[in-house]
Amino acid sequence: xxxxxxxxxxxxxxxxxxxxxxxxxxxxxxxxxxxxxxxxxxxxxxxxxxxxxxxxxxxxxxxxxxxxxxxxxxxxxxxxxxxxxxxxxxxxxxxxxxxxxxxxxxxxxxxxxxxx
Length: 116
Prior knowledge:
four-stranded antiparallel β-sheet, 51% strand
């Protein structure tokens, strides 16, 4: 099982970034995928989650509602996190995550820095 996150970078407040999480090694369609983030000196927190392709329900932490959008492309085994109206407090390493039947897996993380 592999999760490869990418798309981070330096952006000014109010800007946008799109993160990608390319996955392999499991049946992508059947599992929910989440994005987490960890800011310096803080605990890792859940940001957004999208359910399996059966439902495609989405969930967001309160601080990103209306600004972030999670989506999935089942043909590419990829989950995206579109981040708009970015704020300095969004600065963190972002990780994608999946929980399979007996194990949980994390991507390697991609750094998002929001600064002027």
